[in-house]
Amino acid sequence: MLVSSGQLELTYSIFAIFAALCSASILLTAAMFPDMTKQLFMKMVMYISLCTMVANIMAAVGFPDGDTRMCTAQAIVVNLFFKASWFWTTCLSLEIYYIFLYEKHGLSLKQMHMICWPLAIFCTVIPLTTSSFGRSDDLFTEGWCFLRTKTSFQEILWSLLRFILH
Asked: CA angle 33-36-38, nearest 5°?
């Protein structure tokens, strides 16, 4: 290994803190200029930033020991909020598409909430049913508390489903 586990963990934590601070700066800007938050796009950007900030704060913890409550909590929170961020970004893209194509808004903010949060929660509950959250032993994700890598049929099935959902 070219980099030690401690160096990798420190680097990962530094980048996660930096990303969380960038997301926090977007939220702070919105708080300082409340007129901006009246626009649907800015509200969506705020939810994307909020999700990314929470996930990165939890990721900044580093690499907790495997099969601990902290590792499982980190895996669940990171998975939930990065998925929610991805769904909010998808809604933002679709909103831009609707405006260019139909010259009107596609979905209301309430409808977006009804899409983004339940889908993110659903994608987080699936691995919970198979006890898939924990420390990975995979060569490329070693040390991360996210989804464990196993070769059982159940894990292969979950990996396939995870690939399709991404």
From this structure: 125
Are the CB atoms for 119 and 83 separated by under 8 Å? Answer: yes
Task: Tell me which residue range forms the domain holding 119.
Answer: 5-165
Q: How far, in Å, CA of 94 to CA of 18, rounded?
A: 28
Q: Which amino acid is at 154?
A: Q
Position 137 scores a pLDDT of 64
- Strand, helix or coil for residue 111: helix
Instruction: Tell which wins on pLDDT, 131 or 90.
Output: 90
Output the domain CATH number for residue 38.
1.20.1070.10
In the chain, how many domains are there? Answer: 1
Q: Where are the alpha helices (DSSP H) in the chain?
A: 5-32, 40-59, 69-102, 109-129, 153-165
pTM of model > 0.90? no
Instruction: Find, among 24, 149, 133, the residue nearest to 75 by Cα.
Output: 133
Average pLDDT in the 27-52 region?
93
Q: What is the mean pLDDT of the chain?
A: 84
Q: For the chain, report the end-to-end CA distance as a whole number of angstroms.
A: 29
Strand partners, 146: 134
Task: Evaluate whether 40 touches 105 at the Cβ level (below 8 Å).
Answer: yes
